[in-house]
Amino acid sequence: METKDYNLTISDHEFKVKGYWLDQVDDFGQNVDYPVVIICPGGGFTFHSEREEEPIALRFNSYGMHAVVLEYQLIEDRPVYPSALQELAKTIDWITKQPASRHVDKSKIILVGFSAGGHIVATYNGVATNELLRKKYGLEQYNGQHAAVILGYPVIDMTIKGSFPDDDKALHQITEDKSLWKAQDLLNENSKPAFVWQTQTDELVKVVNTIKYVDRMNELNIPVEYHLFGSGIHGLALGTYVTQKPGKKKYLNSWTAKWIELALNWLQMMKFLG
């Protein structure tokens, strides 16, 4: 396997991605093109959680998928949006331009988002599949499209009281564009299938976030699989010792940790894997 950092560029700035590229297996006796996941970690739009980067990438690698981690725009000297959407579009475009020797199945690009990164992925699933919105937010210049999304304890509706961000100042720092505050309202009949999971005891992002998104997908007859686990804190990541903060048992949850196996099963069922 090869891991490599890259600097990509959109119109006004550079951003970083990291690729985790699978090697070919000689025993197969033929070349195989692998699907690829693009991972948007959480971090409240103020940092990128490393617990939701390499550990997640390596698990998807173990399922026979390339992985790319996107270090998207944070709240710094500019709003998160629309830069984060353009960065994601550019990353997809960049993947479609990988050489044949990389062996990427460019028809099977899966977006994976956690928490704040989940809002970027969920929003992109609406904006990038609407031609008018693609043009409005400067995505029309980029090629390629995603095939599906996987959302882990995602922020969906940033206007829900008592749920992240629950702070008008932070909300406006993320974006002044109110049409991007509610990812569920951006979904349309061309949006891609989704696998969504959350815990009922999430103390930071209320469960109503995922319910709103799944309900809207059902209304639009878009394939969706939803798992609401009965226990677990926000930010579980894998829910195993691999992503456990040292000495903090609350980051361990053997039942909720099954989410990634369920996601694998869903990818297989949807013909995105295997």
UniProtKB/TrEMBL annotation:
Name of the protein in its database record: Esterase
One Gene Ontology molecular-function label: hydrolase activity
One Pfam family named in its UniProt record: BD-FAE
Domain of life: Bacteria
Keywords: Hydrolase
Classification via SUPFAM superfamilies: alpha/beta-Hydrolases (SSF53474)
Species name: Companilactobacillus alimentarius DSM 20249
Keyword Hydrolase recorded: yes
